[in-house]
What we know:
By secondary structure, the protein is α+β, with helices and mostly antiparallel strands. The protein folds into two domains: 154 residues, no CATH class; 71 residues. 44% of the residues lie in helices and 22% in strands. It has six helices and eight strands; from the N terminus they run αβαββββαβββααα. The strands form two sheets. The chain has a six-stranded antiparallel sheet, sandwiched between helices. Keywords: Nucleus. GO terms for molecular function: DNA endonuclease activity; single-stranded DNA binding. It is found in: Nucleus. Its main location: nucleus.
Amino acid sequence: MRWFRQINDNFRVRGCSYILYKPHGKHKTAGETAEGALMKLTQGLKDESMAYIYHCQNHYFCPVGFDATPLKAAKAYRGPSPTNEMEYWILIGEPSRKHPAIHCKKWMDIVTDLNTQNPEYLDIRHTERGIQRRKTKKVGGNLHCIMAFQRVNWQKLGPWALNLENLRHDFGTERSHRGAPEDAEASSKRLAQLGRSHSMGSQRDGSWRRLSHTAEFRQRSSPDSDLEEDAAD
């Protein structure tokens, strides 16, 4: 979707979009059932990185939550129940100021709206009116659908990225193995240089010690040194 890509570019984020459920018309989701779409929708509404748009009546409604109510009141507090024993209600954000901010509609009514084809239609805002007919010559098809949007985190890569990391690791180890003789030669040269520097240092220390001993011997053997000491006393 072009506008979603432009929003991502404007805010410098990465995301993907796709049609979650569209049973009729162009770009229909072949093979997707109402039960499967409901499961994906309810799971995605719990995820902060997911958002949905319910395209209906030339408007973008926004599903923001859901409520699962048991069909039997006795099972209300007995833990999770099968999907066929629950009635799902979808909380939908309203974009128009002429209507309430949030609608609470049955999932089966939304499925009826998505499966109704021209010239028949169901106004999701007024489900009490039932299925109505438009004054149009177009027959078949339906533009209504549910679209999904997801923020992509590139730091959490899939299994294919592990292969890239392994390739990088193998390439690095191969380079290290190839460079092992060179590293050994370089280390031996460094050790030789260090050895020469240590030997030169020891030679310098030895010569300095010999010179110092010679100077001390000369000072001790010369008569001037004794005279200077006597004069100082």
